[in-house]
Amino acid sequence: MSKAKGKTRRQKFGYNVNRKRLNRNARWKAAPRIECFHIRHAWDHTKSVRQNLAEMGLAMDPNKVPLRKRKMKAMEVDIEERPKELVRKPYVLNDLEAEASLPEKKGNTLSRDLIDYVRYMVENHGEDYKAMARDEKNYYQDTPKQIRNKINVYKRFYPSEWQTFIDSLQKNKMEVE
Predict the structure, then answer these.
(1) In contact, 90 and 55? CB cutoff 8 Å
(2) What is the pTM of this model?
(3) What would you measure as the largest C-alpha separation in the chain, in angstroms?
(4) Would you say residue 91 has pLDDT above 80?
(5) Pair 129, 145: CB distance under 8 Å
């Protein structure tokens, strides 16, 4: 909705606002958030990106990564070497290497419902996929091939659990007979 005519006021200057702090906070908030925990906590906002990364022992440009040089010949000794950049924060590089060496966490799992469904079907029907498809617990009306694929997925995700489950089924069959 539009405002009534003559009711708009011009903005007045706020004399009690600290402009220096306002600009500094705006600049800090506008800067992109560094996702890496180790780099974010070692970052110095007063320095440039290149200086920060050099202090941590990282390279801004992957083409300019210092590589180990081969053994120098007598003629090459005379060439001046530029001073190496000092790594003032080696703990960042060590933390990143330690984090990278950790084994990758298995993030994908199957739902509890699917696990129970597969176990129920195998318990009651064994390898008879057509009987599984006709079972009343087959709520989603899966075809025999779909059920077989679900069982194979369970086998692939939890091979040790699958083996213990099959062993327990065989043990129960032996006890019944």
Answers:
(1) no
(2) 0.46
(3) 96
(4) yes
(5) yes
